[in-house]
């Protein structure tokens, strides 16, 4: 069996609600070399989840309320390794206090 890679690059991204100024901080794996494609795919996944699942998460509710056209995504950082990426995401959430992250993530 092949060992799972732990050294992949991850993107820490920010999704902005352009109507309210609220935002979400997240992390995703960098697929290939095109970071823009990776984060655009991640935004599409968030939108799809909001439209097809009845989740009461702040980001999903905001997407349903304001519509997908009201959201933009940008890259904040690229971090090598899964653990360091998730640690950095947690640090940024504490520092930036995004309103669209679920309360269980806001520490």
**In one word, what is the shape?**
globular
Individual helix count: 3
Proper CATH architecture: 3-Layer(aba) Sandwich
Provide the helix percentage: 25-40%
> What value does the Rg take, in angstroms?
14 Å
According to DSSP, the number of beta strands is 3
Q: Which structural class do the helices and strands define? A: alpha+beta
Strand line-up across the major sheet: 2-1-3
Structure, described:
The protein has 107 residues and is an alpha+beta fold. It has helices spanning 35-52, 58-66, 82-96; strands spanning 9-17, 23-29, 71-80. It has a single domain (9-96), classed as GIY-YIG endonuclease (3-Layer(aba) Sandwich), CATH 3.40.1440.10. It has three helices and three strands. The radius of gyration is 14 Å and the shape is globular. The N and C termini lie far apart (37 Å). The mean pLDDT is 90.
Write a concise keyword list for the protein shown above.
39% helix; alpha+beta; globular; 107 residues; GIY-YIG endonuclease
